[in-house]
């Protein structure tokens, strides 16, 4: 397989789950080829764990952005989350820390915006 074909066969999906507002994980990014590579790069840059499962990615890339994953896929997502907690606790910790930093930065921006008014 050529390098071009290898890139074009890549798939990536990013999920978000906010227990305070989401019923289930929501698709926030999805792409094929170069877009998939960029999604993975951004995840790595931000300390978000990356899990490779071509079959699951194939199913998830068929769904629209902003869509909650269907109930039939809950167990697959739970298994991935459990994998990160059990087998890769460092990545899980890094992801939690990155999430907290992003939340703090957002709160700081909101606070500075309120002071400017």
UniProtKB/TrEMBL annotation:
Residues 107-117 have a biased composition (Acidic residues). Residues 95-117 are annotated as: Disordered. Gene3D superfamilies: secretion proteins EscU. Residues 95-106 have a biased composition (Basic and acidic residues). GO terms for biological process: protein secretion. One of its GO terms (cellular component) is plasma membrane. This is Type III secretion protein. It comes from Sporofaciens musculi.
């Amino acid at each position: 397989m050529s390098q071009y074909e290898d890139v074009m066969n890549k798939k990536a999906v990013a999920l978000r789950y906010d227990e305070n507002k989401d019923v289930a994980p929501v698709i926030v990014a999805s792409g094929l080829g170069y877009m998939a590579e960029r999604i993975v790069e951004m995840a790595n840059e931000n300390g978000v764990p990356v899990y490779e499962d071509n079959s699951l990615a194939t199913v998830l890339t068929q769904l629209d952005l902003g869509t909650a994953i269907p109930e039939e896929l809950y167990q697959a997502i739970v298994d991935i989350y459990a994998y990160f907690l059990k087998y890769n606790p460092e990545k899980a910790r890094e992801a939690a820390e990155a999430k907290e930093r992003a939340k703090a930065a957002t709160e700081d921006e909101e606070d500075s915006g309120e002071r400017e008014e």
